[in-house]
Amino acid sequence: MADVHQLDPISRSPGKATVYGAWERFVQGEDDIRGLRPEVAISWHRCRDQYRVDPYLTEAPVAVAEVDHALEHDVVFAELGFRAASVAHEVSNLGGVVTITDATGRVLAQWGDQATRSRATKANLAAWFCWSECATGTNGMGTALEAHAPVIIRGAEHWCQAFHDWTCAGVAVRDVVTGEPIAVLNISCWRGDLPASAAAWLGNTATKTQHILRQRAQDGGAELVAAYNHARSRSTAALAAVDPAGRVVIADDTASVLLGVPGSTPAPDPAARWNPSLPEFIWAARYAAKQATHNPDWVGSTQIFTHLADEPTPISIRPVFLSGQLVGNLISFGVSEGEQLPRAEGARRPGARPHRIVAMRDNRMVLLRLPEVSFAESKGNDVWLSTDQGRLRAASAGLDKLESELTDAGFLRVHRGYVVNLSRIREVERRFRGELFLVMDDQASPMVPVSRRNAPAVRRALDI
Predict the structure, then answer these.
(1) Which residues does the UniProt record annotate as the domain HTH LytTR-type (predicted)?
(2) Domain shared by 21 and 144, yes or no
(3) Core vs surface per residue 375-393: b (16+ CB within 10 A) or e
(4) How far apart are CA 55 and CA 138, in angstroms?
(5) CATH, residue 442
(6) Can you give the pLDDT at residue 349?
(7) SS (HEC) of 222-234
(8) Share of the chain above pLDDT 70, in %
């Protein structure tokens, strides 16, 4: 395996041992990118095969004229603007520029060296132009929107050849409840490298900004608990309070059994909330959050399958606000009031279902067809795939993310640490006390445990 630290990302030499050489091969359709950093390789894969960005694009496109965002995001823009302005002089002395973009990659503001800003303007690295990956390929701002850590893109690591003279470092600030990006803070230099402290400063700034969001989310959680207590005093229906991501803040004893979470224990801190592992429920909560953001009087209803139930249960969803900001929803079970939600399958964004799973083998990306994957297993911070090509590390970070991508593709979460391909289950073994184990059709015939709260969903999926 090549040592990536010995590669020259700035060089335009077509040699095999340079990043530019890897870029030339990948643009021509090759997948063997020797020595390229995995995060850059994955980004190039998105740019070429998913977003189909022209690698010979010379400037960023104009951003969408109107972008909808929550009032909460204004807090982030203001905080990042303050911190960017505070280091603008230092960055300017290094010949760099600092930029802030929103969640769509639209540049909102820019500070720094005037000469560098003039060069940046030629590529439309300026306010009101879009630097998302889907618009402009691999770059500090767009790739940070796709990542969960500070990102540095040097020279020929940029997808578009016209930007190979730039070095960029960006970090996304994410909503502490939904995990969705809100904004990106980025530093760029022309024909030079960034100071060693750039990534640490960006990460520290994002952490401090997200601390503000965490405190506000805790206030929102407390408001949800108060709304839950008020509603319980007025109704006998089973009740739960969930945040906009569908995670449970508090549930009564009946609702907690249906959702498979602890009962009557409030969790206002977003880090302590529970994931019910019910895709239909989570989708309904997120759909309701979007509707209520645009219409505070919105109330909806639908039916979902819950844990320990063989028939769908009707639920009613009512939004909760704090100072005009949506903080979550109250879910009443056995009640059907308000607008009927559309079917989850028809309401999800087109193209959400993946055709392949990206895995890593040494310094290569392995593009797996879904039938080749037997199951995914979480080990620490990594996700490992059991496949027809052996055991491979998934490019996706976190089993939750992989689960959300594969839910509509015949995969099911059966345990806190496992997601399985339903079509690859060969046998179901029932053990003492009703414990279930799935025997997969891999050559090694591995057995995957099924947790008690996921057992009803497995039985429904397999019709047993």
Answers:
(1) 357-464
(2) yes
(3) bbbbeeeebbbbbeeeebe
(4) 10
(5) 2.40.50.1020
(6) 40
(7) HHHHHHHHHHHCC
(8) 92
According to DSSP, the residues that pair with 412 across neighbouring strands are 420
Task: State how far Cα 145 lies from the chain centre.
Answer: 9
Q: Which helix (H) or strand (E) is 359 found in, with range? A: strand 356-361
Domain end marker among 313, 347, 381: 347
In the predicted structure, residue 344 carries a pLDDT above the cut 80? no
CA 91 to chain centre: 30
DSSP 8-state class, residue 452: G
Give how many domains the chain has, as a whole number. 3
Given a contact cutoff of 8 angstroms between Cβ atoms, the answer to whether 154 and 9 are in contact is: yes
CATH number at residue 289: 3.30.450.20
23 lies in the same domain as 65: yes
Phi/psi of residue 349, nearest 5 degrees? -65, 140
The predicted-structure confidence for 411-439, as pLDDT tens digits, reads as follows 899 998 999 999 899 889 887 777 889 99
Place of tokens 């807090």: 75
The tokens for 254 are 């009946």
Tens of pLDDT, residue by residue over 179-233, are 889 999 999 999 988 888 888 889 899 999 999 999 999 999 999 999 999 999 9
CA distance 286 to 292: 10
322 and 361 within one domain: no
C-beta separation of 156 from 9 below 8 A = yes
User: SS3 of 109, please?
Assistant: strand
pLDDT for residue 250 is more than 50:
yes
Are residues 108 and 229 both part of a single domain?
A: no
Find the domain containing 450 and state its range: 356-462
What whole-number distance in Å separates Cα of residue 152 and Cα of residue 136? Answer: 16
Give the Cα separation of 32 and 22 in Å (integer).
8
CATH code of the domain containing 187: 3.30.450.40
Tokens 């769908």 sit on residue: 312
Residue 3 binned pLDDT confidence (cut-offs 50, 70, 90): very low
Helix (H, G, I), strand (E, B) or coil at 366: strand
> Could you tell me if 380 and 336 lie in one domain?
no
